[in-house]
Each structure stands twice: as C-alpha cells, then as structure tokens.
Amino acid sequence: MDHSILNEIESPQLLKNGDAVVVGVSGGPDSMAMLHLLVDLDRRSTMDLKITVAHLNHSLRGEESDEDEAFVKNAAAALGTAYRTCRRDIPVIAARESLGIEETARRERYAFFERVCLQTGAKFVAVGHHADDQTETILHRILRGTGFRGLSGMPGSRPLRPDSDIHLIRPLLGITRNRILQYLSEAGIPFRRDRTNDSDEPMRNRIRNKLLPLIVSEINPQVGDAIRRLGVQADWINEHLGDTVRRTFDSIMISQDRDRLVLRADALTSKSRILQSELLRTAVVSLGFGERRLTFEHQFALLRIVAGETDSVREQLPFGITVERRGHELVFSRPTPTGEISANTVPVFEIEVACPGRTVIPALAREIICRTVRDRPVGFAAPDASGRRFEEFVDADRIQFPLRVRSCRSGDRFHPLGSPGSKSVGDFLTDAKASETARREAFLLCDGHGPVWLVGRRIDDRVKLTDQTVNLLQLMVRPISW
Questions:
Q1: Phi/psi of residue 51, each to 5°?
Q2: Which secondary structure element, helix H or strand E, spans residue 144, and what is its range?
Q3: How far, in Å, CA of 35 to CA of 370, rounded?
Q4: What is the Cα–Cα distance from 384 to 387, expressed in whole angstroms?
Q5: 186 burial class (0-12, 13-18, 19+ CB within 10 angstroms)?
Q6: Tens place of pLDDT for every residue, the chain, 482 residues?
C-alpha cells in the first residue's frame, strides 16, 4: 500500500490522539477509502481513535439502498468499528416539505450524523469529499454566480452548524478521485457503485460528467489543479479580509442595541468598495439574521446609498430590516423595533434550529439555544418551575433531528409532560387559562416526530428525562442578546 496517502490525510492534523469520530460511509469508493485510511492511520500511529461508522439509508434506490446498508454494516464489522444506521424516506420527506431531493438528503444525512455524535460523545464527523469534489464545488458556484467568498470552496474543517462544538472534517480533500481509486484497487477494498451518479441530474453531475471532461480534453488538462489553486488563493484573501473587517467594524460603529445598529456613513465612504460591502454584510449578521438571502443587488443598492450615488436614502432588506442614511449615519433597524408583537398580528414562521448552537427567531425578537450536556439538572422536577419557563432539559436520544422552531398550526397535538395523554395545543392553552395575547405568541419546538416543547409551557412526555437517559439537550429561549 502507498503509505504516502496516509501521510497526506494525517498532515492537516484534523484529529488527535483519543478523538471520537463519526465516519459517514455510503459504501461508495470515497467513503470506503476514507474509512479504511482512518482505521489504518489509527493502527499505524496508535492514535486510539474511537471510530463509529454511520450510514443513512436514503430509500432512493429500492433494493440497492438496502444492499448498500448491508454492505456498510459488514464492512464495519470486518474492521471492528462501531456501527449506527438509520432509514429515512427522502422522496416522501422532500415532497412533503417542497424541497429538492439532493437538499433533503443532505439535510437528513447531516442531522443523522449529528445525532450519532450526540449519542457517542464524538466531536468530529468525517465525510469523503476529495479534491475533485472541491473542483466541482468551486466551478458549480461560479456558474451559479457566487461571490468571492464562495470561491474558497469547501474547508477542510468547519462547525457542523453555526456555534456547534461538533466539527465536520474532510480528510481526503487534498486527494484526487483517481488516486483514491488506485488506493482501493491496490488494497483490494470493495465498494458500492451508485448508478444515480451516471445521470445528468442534478447540475453537479452534469459538471462532473460533461463539462469538466470537455474542458480537460479541449481547453486545459490541468483544470482541476487550476481551479483548486484559485480556491486556495480566495481562502487567503477571505482570511485577510475577515481580519480587516473585524478590526474595522468596531471603529465605524456608533451604537448598537437590540433594535438598531448605527454606523458612521462618512467612515464607510473612505473604505474600498469590497471592504464596504463586507462591513455592510457584517452589520446585517450582527443584528442576528442570516446572510443567505442578502443578494448582490441588496449590497449594491446599499453601496450606492452610502456613496450618495442615488436619490434614495432607504433600502428594505430581507427579514424586514430597514437601512436608512440619515446625514452622517447609516441606521439598520429591526422589523419590530420594540421586540413586541402587535395584538392583531399572528407571526407565521418555521426555522431549522442549530443543535448545538444559537438560532435567531426574527419574528419574535428571540433566540433559541441548544446545548449538549452530560450532567443531570437539579430542580427540574416540576414542568412549570418558577423562573425557568424558558429553559428545559430533554433526552437527546429520543429526538428525531433536525429540530425546527415554528408558529403553532391548527391541529397541533402533543402529550404534555405530567398529563395522562395527548391533547391539542389549543386545548392545553385553554386549560392553562392563557390570555389571547399568550395564545397568539405561542410557538413550538418540533422534531421529526412532532412537538418537543410548547415553548415556555411544557415539553412532550416522549422526550422527558428518565433513568435510562444518557445524552441530554439543554433548551433555552431568551430575548436576542448582543
């Protein structure tokens, strides 16, 4: 076996002695190579890695999906590693939630990996993305119109979710597909073939099967290396720019509170356009909102307002954020300045929750925080403990991730902790003598099985802590903090 490939996956030092790692294995060549390399690395270097193989059956290819599952289970057994599996009907979930198959599969897969991490105490999830995947990712982003930050491609390591202490790692990111196949052949390692990769859907497959081979044969045989070099250089630029933005932002900020952020417009105008753009993006993020819906058109309109190139002094951004130039000030305002909900307004929302992590609920000017804990809480015997209405502990192993926080819907039912059976959310609030305002403001934290917590009221009986509970989730809801 070519031991240099082991040195390459070890050199980024993504893992250290004694780490527990969940290895996502589909049965395909990339994940099988990664699994064997990590096992070989552990044996050769005595790193004492605690490896758990995780396989999600997507139910996309009928019997072939079941055969993949059995194949991975046998591979894990042969290598002496722990094994976890789960079955999710991706086509049904995608249709129910009006999402694409690829997006749904990725979401469910990472949610499963996170759940296995919570169950095993692992802080790392290893996936089999390699150098050719990096090439395809960067080219895909270019074709879709990425900004310069998207040119960086996939990082070798990143938090699984924002603010999560679980990290997604890519040990094979510097190794090409051909080298992986050569390693598998020389080592006699079998793998499964996914026939859907041969189709021209989704767009990623067309890039792999048609566009890149055309570029290689007619334009540049080394296009993969060229694109990856571009990604590395973009990463350097992003790192430098990020440091500059962090140092500059505080110097141009006049004030910030829960409802408003004010920047010095005149100080902004003295900066380069790219730095202005990043400072404006940072302002939106600092208000507790994501940036994915912030388009180039939004940023360009703000740049023109800052520079005085337009008669307009006001721009409406996603999430209801308003940006207005007032003399020498640029004012970012939240959609609900006081954080209160109008008596005649019923906020309708649904947001995926970072777990572990912090998730902003813009419609309510609140945030929900999920933390994994080991120690059992003290003083939570009563479901409505005074002063702790917005803090709960639940059994993490009884939750079907991902979690979502959403407004209540007609027909919602749950089994309130301490009650003999299930009841509708409406009936529960009636029995609790909730006011009309409280009923309008009620919202739920849900998982794949339904409500987990009627927030501020009661958790569902199925997620309660028992004598068998090993992994706990701490759930907290509070006003947005700065």
A1: -95, 130
A2: helix 131-144
A3: 30
A4: 9
A5: exposed
A6: 456 787 788 777 899 999 999 999 999 999 999 999 999 988 887 789 999 999 999 989 889 999 999 999 999 999 999 999 999 899 988 887 677 888 889 888 998 898 899 889 899 999 999 999 999 999 999 998 888 888 999 999 999 876 678 999 999 999 999 999 999 999 999 999 988 777 766 788 899 999 999 999 999 999 999 999 999 999 999 999 999 999 999 999 999 876 789 999 999 999 999 999 999 999 988 876 667 678 888 899 999 999 988 888 899 887 678 999 999 999 998 765 333 434 344 557 788 888 877 787 877 778 898 888 766 665 544 444 434 688 999 998 899 888 999 988 888 899 999 888 899 999 999 998 888 878 888 999 999 888 999 999 999 999 999 888 888 899 999 876 44
Task: Name every residue whose Cβ is closer than 8 Å to that of residue 146 and which is 6 or more positions away in sequence.
Answer: none
Nearest residue to 85 (alpha-carbon basis) of 139, 24, 136: 24
Closest listed residue to residue 451, CA positions, set 462, 461, 460: 460
Q: Which DSSP state fits 152? A: G
d(CA 439, CA 430): 9
Query: Whole-angstrom Cα distance, residue 190 to residue 32?
Result: 8
Structural domains in the chain? Answer: 4-227 (3.40.50.620), 257-333 (3.30.465.60), 350-479 (3.50.40.10)
Task: Give Cβ neighbours of residue 20 (< 8 Å, ≥ 6 apart).
Answer: 49, 50, 51, 52, 120, 121, 122, 123, 124
Which stretches does DSSP call E strand in 49-103?
Answer: 50-57, 82-87
Say what the pTM is: 0.70
- Answer whether 51's CB lies under 8 Å from 75's CB: no
- Cis omega (within 30 of 0) for bond into 202: yes
> Quick one: tokens of 108?
């469910």
**Do residues 165 and 123 lie in contact, with contact meaning Cβ atoms separated by under 8 Å?**
yes
Q: Which residue has the tokens 């198959």?
A: 101
Helix, strand, coil proportions of the chain in percent (round to 5)? 45, 20, 35
Question: What is the C-alpha separation between 157 and 166, in angstroms, rounded?
Answer: 10
Instruction: Let me know how long the chain is.
Output: 482
CA distance 43 to 380: 45
